[in-house]
């Protein structure tokens, strides 16, 4: 017994030494040199897991699983990244592993409310392999907490402690912008911005959000930033961030986000956004109104896709002129307004889908009237005439059956069997960087249940258009599921038979589509359509600001554009202004005012199809897809 007591005492001392060593190492390392997302509590020996085990690390047989807390902040749009780190400790066995969330489910929603009941992803872990697993939660609430894991088809009894980020779907629309701020920027310094002072029914909805990790440990997928209306960080932090993080932040900007950088920042070669004077050929600058022409401005703006970088000379928010603060606040607040939901207007009124048959009230009333006349007076009169009133026992059910069959086939064949849809996408295509940023609306309708659900790419953001249910907090919909294993697979109530579903969509990806331009005469140029769909109309401005236009160019074919004078200098950034206006009428603005595009070496093409974003359904109607492309012409140097 005495020998056993000594062993227990020695084990306790060893455990205490490990605890002291763990906290000592983390306390002595500076925040600038530590990637917090990569810290692994590996100092705890695997030989004594029952004595001391970190709360953030779980053991499931051969597997070690560690969850990472998502970036904080409640918003009304975008995705939340739910991240895990999995490691297979076995040198011989491989495992099929599925992560799912929530692990423990509860539902306080009505049966017609929109919510997420399952998010899952399956991976394959070879012997001694390790992998990061990311699940993304869209802007719908989840009916539970914790996370579950399934190994080789067996659901593990232990769940992973995980506190999800609340996703708000309440009916009111006034709330603070959701702004992500680097934890290394002083809290008091950021108080000069008024993002937390907007009138809001909920003070925790939006505002200034500070994560517990520096930018060097931020996510590497732009979807994790999609719910933020603005991001603040220093030039030094952005320069020291891994390339994957910098790329994700730039993709966030290209899809309409705002990044404010404190201190002078040199964009990496080849990834530089467009300077402001590329779009704005005026004398406007953002220096003090009293500053002379020779002074450097306090604020530089750079446009990347649909979003902006704000680069400030100052390394701290303190001392920044008030009018510049107001300008940044206004830009970020306008970005937030893009996602304020219209909970009173049905989506099919905003973005109609052709071919949907409404409820035929008059037709149904006529059918009911005829049915009542036949099954009643006419049936009885006929049976009385032939003196066979007893036949009423089988004529009434027969007439009812025939009427039901007629109504069924009428409703079925009036709409057909195939799904219907309507898509309009606006794409910024930078041929030099081979990047395409897209946003727009999508409407889907299917007469019959779609068992396979909807399929979208991993880089596509889906925001459903939902209506309020009475005066309550819930929005009309139902339980929805997402499987991220192969793609973004949406099942459940995302698309319900005979109910139109509408979505706002955004996407950023590498694309190689382009126009091949060949100059033939002074007043003509020839272009080869390599944009992936037939061109309905096209407007092009060359390096001399000469304006050309043409129409009807088949995919892969050549067409001639005729010169139509010159264009005048631009007065605003069209891409950014389009994100702040009605997305649905962008094409009308270009058709009515073709010289609205007045930037050199660029073009606007209206496509008969939507090659830059997936439609979700494999048999989506071709004639209901449009894509307006604003492209930067590929230069010879690239």
What do these coordinates show?
- 21% of the residues lie in helices and 29% in strands.
- The chain has 638 residues and is α+β, with helices and mostly antiparallel strands.
- An eleven-stranded mixed β-sheet has the order 21-24-19-18-31-30-27-28-29-26-25, with helices on one face.
- α8 packs antiparallel against α9.
- The radius of gyration is 30 Å and the shape is globular.
- 35% of the residues are buried.
Give the SSE map.
Elements: H1 2-28, E1 58-60, E2 63-68, E3 80-88, E4 95-101, E5 104-105, E6 115-125, E7 130-137, E8 144-145, E9 148-151, E10 154-155, E11 178-181, H2 187-190, E12 207-209, E13 230-234, H3 235-240, H4 243-254, E14 258-262, E15 274-275, H5 276-279, E16 299-304, E17 307-312, H6 322-337, H7 347-350, H8 361-385, H9 392-415, E18 420-430, E19 435-445, E20 454-456, E21 460-464, E22 479-483, E23 488-492, E24 501-510, E25 514-521, E26 524-530, E27 535-541, E28 546-553, E29 558-566, H10 574-579, H11 586-592, E30 602-607, E31 625-632
Parallel strand pairs: 6-22, 11-12, 11-13, 13-14, 14-17, 18-31
Antiparallel strand pairs: 1-2, 2-3, 3-7, 4-6, 4-9, 5-8, 9-10, 15-16, 16-17, 18-19, 19-24, 20-23, 21-24, 22-23, 25-26, 26-29, 27-28, 27-30, 28-29, 30-31
Helix pairs in contact: 8-9
